[in-house]
Write a structure and sequence with these properties.
The structure holds 2 protein chains of 2 kinds.
Chain A lengths: L1 H21 L4 H18 L1 H5 L4 E8 L4 E7 L1 H24 L6 H20 L3 H19 L6 H32 L4 H7 L9 H15 L8 H4 L5 H10 L3 H14 L3 H24 L3 H22 L2 H32 L15 H15 L5 H16 L2 H27 L4 H4 L6 H19 L2 H15 L16 H18 L1 H15 L3 H23 L4 H23 L14 H19 L3 H21 L3 H24 L11 H27 L5 H12 L6 H9 L1 H28 L4
Antiparallel strand pairs in A: 1-2
Chain B lengths: L1 H21 L4 H29 L2 E5 L8 E5 L1 H24 L2 H5 L2 H17 L3 H20 L4 H32 L4 H7 L6 H19 L7 H5 L5 H25 L5 H25 L3 H22 L2 H31 L12 H4 L1 H14 L6 H15 L3 H27 L15 H23 L2 H15 L2 H8 L8 H7 L5
Antiparallel strand pairs in B: 1-2
Helix pairs in contact in B: 1-2, 1-5, 2-3, 3-5, 3-11, 3-14, 3-19, 5-6, 5-11, 6-7, 6-11, 7-9, 8-21, 9-11, 9-12, 11-13, 11-14, 12-13, 12-18, 13-14, 13-18, 14-16, 14-17, 14-19, 14-20, 16-18, 16-19, 17-18, 17-19
The chains are: A mainly alpha, B mainly alpha.
Chain lengths: 769, 518
């Protein structure tokens, strides 16, 4: 059924463009039914999963690699699946309203539904490789979505940036998962957890940890990989609401939570997660305070939330994991509502700049109300779910005495209070601006999502017993032990956590009212540290590009002579190194005696011919010098008892010399090339002599080996008896190895065709080719 | 019957080429012949593969001279797989050529020479004789040279000269290597060589000869530092020629390396396979950097051909059954994707008015959304996006590499993969997303109906294959697994070629020994 849900969403994606053409005004409502029904099905699974019975499903895929499409629905997966399908349904409805009349609305639905399917697969996959497949699919669909406004160069840049950062994480994930599978001997997450194999003690544990953390941190935009997320806000608002707050960026968090039972709990795990999470939370908070674009503000608060979630997994105590589950739900609900409502503000008033917004309450009361509720949840005020989550966090961190973490959380939450106030107070209750003049309330498609999500924030806050079971099951899944009972309340009594909440609120309000000095000091800090990750990214890319250009133009510079020099150098190096490292040189038992006089003369002639060719000043000279060498070789064959080979060689030499001379008479004289420099000449002669020497050494060693005569004997014996030919060479050519000759004939025929075609092309043009 | 089928991959294209030459004055007849021949080759390839898988390795002794005295053709799982995939590429490219090739090239004998090229490619795949392999390489060299220079433009001739100059060096090295190996073993039959090479007393000289083979085949396969001919030539000829070059030519070199370094040269694998490993690593990086430096679609794809040769050779260099399976799987994937990419680039060039420079591209998302979908398949597969074929190849290689603790190579592979993702993202942005600098030269709809079909159909076919391998990888994985197994345990191959007793001294010789030579 999980696979069915995924396939149904893919199907919906596939028909979306057509459906949109047929029903332009209704298609988003129809399409939303698919994720909505999936969400319903998942909701029905809650009681069973809470009772501790995960839903399992397996479909065979690539058994010879041990890869299967296997799914497993426990508390963590179920919570994510509900968020993905539930928020997804409203995002689809929302984008229908947001993109009304856009020529590529159908295509947008195609991408966002594909993304939804990938995300759903990611959080339910049990098989390691399937998990990776879905993970990469979210990166690709997100690339398409970020670049949706594709004629805008900035969108394209942001899309490629996100693809590269998350793609790099994907590579790390692949290696990490394969290492995990190999180390444990199992290829599903549940089997690894159940096998009790202690991966933490494995020799490859550090490598696995680094790779998987790299994957999670890039996907979930943890410092220092956070810079792509704010840029990804170039995407249309529904994308930001869905991918970059509620779902995709939480994939990294999901991965960490999922791996916690098998890899978590070690010192490096603790330090890596708390450090990255803490820094990200602080950084996100500070940047949120500094920003003035509604979407940018929300993007940075998302960073803060991701940081807190990672921090909580890093702490890893029972209470922290419960807080993790609570904050995950609370954040997804309020952030989804805020993003969509911010889009509604943009849609209604035409701007997202804080400075241009004010007095919208009278024009957009519904949007205002939903923003207010969601912002209260973000600020962590009762009776909203955000309050419960924050209390849980404070309670556990305080009890465990992580004082640095507590301070970080306090600061971050105070910043959230201030940001929440910024989001609501000025745009809605501030003095009316020009933009407010023509503002209008959005339609039902744009308001349905914020309404439901904000409503749920309130409902779950008041009635915490409702999601309590699922949150408990989530925490159990992240902890990976036996289920623990959970009893959550909105009102905890007068606890230290409540005191901390009060402190947060006070600090937050102080921040809000003293915002401009704070902003200034933040700007100063930024100027001081000069950390501009975006520019660093550009530098990195242009460095890479420059390296690529330099290496490529150095290697492939278009000069044949240089290519050949590289190649001959390669040959010399490889053969020379082999001879040096492997040895094997033997001197064959050749001795010179009186009978070899003629041979010596011929050898000298060959050398002379070669030297003449090198020294030659004209083509004719070179051809004739080479002919001397060739003829000497032919004579050598004649002398050493291979008359047929010798005669053939003589004929070839004669013909080729004549033809070359004839052709050259027709060719225009080329101006003499520039004299090569001395080092170049030296280099070339070293190459030539080196290769000649190396080949000679090998040849001598080969000559020293006994020659196996089986083939020659066989040819000699059978040539007349079986092949009816007296000339053995002829029989070899036309019978024993006649198939070679067939190939060679083909070569000759083809060469003829080529010459013919070239000549004709030349004549057809009536001039120079 | 099986014997004919084993020789069919050579005979069918050769016959087709001969008939095309007979019908020299009638290009229409040649078109029909080319298409028919290509279809017949696909059928023969399919039949051969299924027979090899069901009945084991197929062997035919040409001229009925027993191995190792005559020339043996052998179809083992790797050969048969390569023949089938080459035949499918041949068919797709022949189809595309019908819609794309210009009259000058057609009258210059494009169809005939193309079939000769296919003869050479298939011959190299099925031959079991080292010198015969050299002959098929020559057939490939001369036919590719003619195909390169057909049309006779100045830049084509320039490229063809570079191509032929560098490849002549490779040919000379190959001939030298074959001769030296014959000198120490006295045989050319590859199965026979696999027995005799370990018996040579002077093993270091075998290592030197093996390195000479690495050089010769490495040049054909475009490995660093021997790849220069490839980026210099692949952007000049007609689209059909580019596509078949990119798909098949270099892979024949890789195939030859795989054959020779699993069957014959396994004695000094620490040295020879180490060299292959280093060359593979550098090739990957240099290739992908080259593709990033290019500002032109065709050039970028040419460099990508180089880059992924490195991946396959990495599999060969690791040489476990899984790694060899990975290399085989990757090769099949890569052949399909590279052919597809070049065919697609040809179509894009047509739409952009004769240039694939990034500056001239753009706007496809608006003007041709369906084409974008088609182009996304090979692009995504190139980048290794799951669940397309490239992903499985990468997964296999990563697993094979990590299992044998080749961490650096796996790292290089993944970095190359990431840089390829960058390239794909960039190409997508330039070709599909960006608004074109000037209005497109033509829309697909302005092509005639039949022509559109001929240009699109191969793209569609190849993309479908890529997607179906991606979604249902099991069949090919299984097949690749058999390839990997048969390459690590070569006894079945040797036995099939030399008969039940793998002895280099057949009884026939003993019987004739007593008779005197006339």
């Amino acid at each position: 059924m999980i696979l069915t849900a995924i396939l149904a969403i893919i199907l919906a994606a596939a028909v979306a463009p057509t459906l949109n053409r047929l029903l332009p005004a209704l298609s988003h409502w129809v399409l939303a039914l698919v994720p909505l029904s999936a969400a319903l099905w998942f909701a029905l699974q809650v009681p069973g999963v809470v009772a501790g019975v995960p839903v399992l499903e397996t479909a065979s895929w690539a058994p010879s690699l041990g890869v299967a499409l296997s799914f497993r629905l426990d508390g963590l997966s179920l919570l994510f699946a509900l968020l993905i399908c539930g928020i997804g349904a409203f995002v689809v409805i929302y984008s229908g309203g947001y993109l009304r009349g856009h020529p590529r609305e159908g295509r947008f639905h195609l991408f966002i539904l594909s993304f939804m399917a990938a995300m759903l697969g990611l959080v339910t996959a049990d098989d390691l490789i399937s998990l990776f497949v879905f993970w990469e699919l979210t990166s690709i669909t997100s690339f398409m979505l970020i670049g949706f406004n594709h004629e805008d160069a900035r969108s394209r840049r942001s899309a490629i940036q996100a693809l590269l950062v998350t793609g790099g994480g994907g590579m790390a994930l692949l290696a990490g998962l394969v290492l995990m599978g190999m180390a444990s001997g199992h290829w599903t997450l549940s089997a690894i957890a159940a096998s009790g194999a202690d991966l933490r003690a494995h020799v490859l544990y550090p490598a696995m940890l680094v790779l998987l953390l790299l994957a999670a941190f890039t996907k979930s935009a943890q410092v220092p990989f956070h810079f792509w997320l704010p840029n990804a806000m170039d995407a249309p608002t529904p994308v930001s609401a869905y991918l970059h707050s509620a779902t995709m960026v939480k994939a990294g968090v999901y991965l960490l939570a999922r791996l916690n039972p098998t890899l978590g709990g070690t010192e490096p795990w603790f330090w890596a997660l708390t450090l990255a999470g803490g820094v990200t939370a602080l950084w996100g908070s500070a940047m949120a305070l500094r920003s003035t674009d509604l979407k940018k503000i929300l993007a940075y608060t998302t960073l803060m939330a991701l940081g807190v979630l990672v921090l909580l997994i890093g702490i890893g105590s029972d209470g922290a994991l419960v807080a993790f589950a609570g904050f995950l739900l609370a954040h997804s609900l309020y952030k989804g509502a805020l993003f969509m409502a911010a889009g509604s503000v943009d849609h209604g008033s035409g701007t997202r700049e804080l400075g241009e917004l004010g007095g919208l309450w009278s024009k957009m009361p519904a949007t205002g109300l939903f923003i207010a509720i969601a912002a209260l949840s973000m600020a962590g005020l009762p009776p909203l779910l955000g309050f419960v989550a924050k209390e849980l966090i404070y309670e556990d961190v305080f009890r465990n005495g992580h004082m640095v973490a507590l301070a970080v959380l306090l600061l971050a939450n105070a910043a959230m209070v201030a940001t929440a106030a910024t989001l609501f107070l000025k745009p809605f209750l501030g003095a009316p601006t020009k933009a407010a003049g023509h503002a209008h309330e959005s339609g039902p498609a744009l308001l349905a999502g914020p309404a439901v999500l904000a409503g749920l924030s309130l409902l779950f806050g008041l009635w915490i017993a409702l999601p309590q079971g699922l949150l408990g099951a989530t925490a159990d899944a992240v902890r990976g032990g036996a289920p623990q009972s959970l009893n959550l309340h909105l009102w905890h009594g007068l606890t230290p956590a409540l005191g901390l909440s009060g402190l947060t609120l006070a600090l937050g309000m102080a921040l809000y009212f003293g915002l401009s000095p704070v902003k200034n000091s933040l700007a100063a800090i930024q100027r001081l540290t000069r950390i501009d990750h975006d520019r660093a990214w550009d530098c990195l890319l242009s460095l890479l590009q420059g390296t690529a250009n330099r290496i490529t133009s150095a290697l492939q510079d278009g000069v044949l002579q240089r290519y050949l020099a590289w190649i001959f150098a390669g040959i010399l190096l490889l053969l020379g190194a082999t001879l040096v490292m492997r040895g094997g040189f033997t001197w064959p038992g050749i001795r010179l005696d009186g009978d070899d006089g003629l041979g010596i003369v011929l050898a000298l002639l060959m050398l002379g011919g070669t030297a003449g060719a090198i020294r030659a000043r004209s083509r004719m000279e070179a051809v004739l010098s080479l002919a001397i060498t060739g003829m000497s070789v032919a004579l050598f064959f004649l002398l050493s008892g291979a008359p047929d080979v010798g005669i053939t060689q003589l004929m070839v030499e004669t013909l080729s010399t004549i033809i070359l001379v004839l052709v050259m008479a027709k060719l225009p004289m080329l101006p003499p090339g520039p004299d090569r420099s001395r080092p170049a000449k030296l280099f070339h002669s070293v190459l030539a002599l080196g290769i000649g020497g190396v080949v000679t050494v090998i040849l001598l060693a080969v000559l020293d080996q006994p020659l196996a005569m089986d083939l020659s004997r066989f040819f000699g014996d059978t040539s007349l008896v079986e092949a009816y030919g007296r000339n053995v060479v002829n029989v070899i050519l036309v019978d024993f190895r006649g198939f070679d000759t067939l190939g060679e004939i083909t070569v000759v025929a083809c060469a003829g065709l080529g010459v013919f075609a070239l000549l004709r092309a030349r004549m057809g043009k009536g001039g120079q080719p | 019957m099986n014997a004919w089928l084993t020789a069919a991959p050579i005979l069918i294209p050769m016959l087709t080429a001969a008939l095309c030459m007979v019908a020299w004055k009638h290009p229409v007849v040649q078109r029909g012949l080319s298409l028919l021949g290509s279809i017949a080759l696909v059928a023969a390839g399919g039949a051969l593969l299924s027979i090899v898988l069901n009945q084991g390795i197929q062997v035919v002794q040409m001229g009925a001279w027993a191995a190792p005295f005559g020339i043996t053709l052998v179809a083992d799982p790797l050969s048969a797989l390569m023949v089938l995939i080459a035949a499918v590429m041949g068919f797709c490219v022949a189809l595309h050529a019908l819609g794309d090739i210009d009259p000058v090239r057609e009258k210059g004998g494009h169809h005939a020479v193309f079939q000769i090229l296919m003869t050479g490619v298939c011959g190299a795949f099925v031959t079991g004789d080292l010198f015969n392999l050299y002959v098929w390489f020559e057939v490939m060299l001369i036919s590719s040279f003619v195909l390169l220079s057909l049309g006779g433009l100045r830049e084509q001739i320039d490229a063809a000269i570079k191509y032929v100059a560098i490849n002549m060096v490779a040919t000379a090295c190959l001939l030298l290597a074959v001769a030296l190996l014959y000198g120490v073993t006295g045989t050319l039959n590859m199965a026979d060589l696999s027995i005799r090479v370990p018996e040579v007393p002077n093993q270091p000289v075998i290592s030197a000869i093996a390195v000479l083979f690495i050089i010769a085949f490495g040049m054909k396969a475009a490995l660093f530092p021997f790849f220069f001919w490839l980026p210099a030539t692949y952007h000049t000829p007609s689209v059909a020629v580019q596509a078949i070059f990119a798909g098949l030519l270099t892979k024949v070199g890789v195939y030859a390396l795989m054959r020779v370094f699993t069957l014959i040269f396994t004695g000094d694998s620490g040295w020879t396979h180490g060299i292959l490993m280093v060359m593979a690593g550098i090739t990957m990086i240099v290739g992908v950097l080259g593709s990033l430096a290019a500002r032109d679609l065709n050039r970028a794809w040419s460099w990508q051909v180089v880059a992924h040769i490195g991946s396959m050779v990495m599999g060969l260099a690791i040489a476990t059954p899984l790694a060899l399976a990975a290399a085989a799987f990757y090769m099949v994937h890569d052949i399909i994707v590279k052919t597809n990419l070049f065919l697609g680039a040809g179509l894009v060039r047509r739409l952009a008015g004769g240039s694939t420079d990034y500056a001239r591209l753009g706007g496809l998302f608006k003007t041709a959304p369906w084409l974008c979908l088609l182009l996304f398949v090979p692009l995504g597969s190139l980048a290794g996006f799951p669940p397309l074929s490239g992903f499985w190849g990468k997964l296999l290689l990563v697993r094979a590499g990590l299992e044998t603790e080749h961490y650096v190579m796996v790292g290089l592979l993944l970095v190359t993969g990431l840089l390829t993702i960058w390239l794909v993202g960039r190409v997508w942005a330039e070709m599909v997303w960006k608004a074109p600098a000037e209005p497109p030269a033509m829309a697909i709809s302005t092509l005639s109906f039949g022509r559109t079909y001929l240009l699109i159909l191969p793209l569609l076919l190849l993309s479908l294959i890529t997607v179906s391998i991606g979604l249902q990888p099991e069949r090919l994985l299984n097949l690749a697994g058999q390839v990997g197994h048969s390459l690590t345990d070569t006894s079945a191959y040797v036995q099939a070629v030399l008969g039940t007793t793998p002895s280099p001294q057949p009884t026939l010789l003993g019987a004739l020994e007593t008779e005197a030579m006339p």
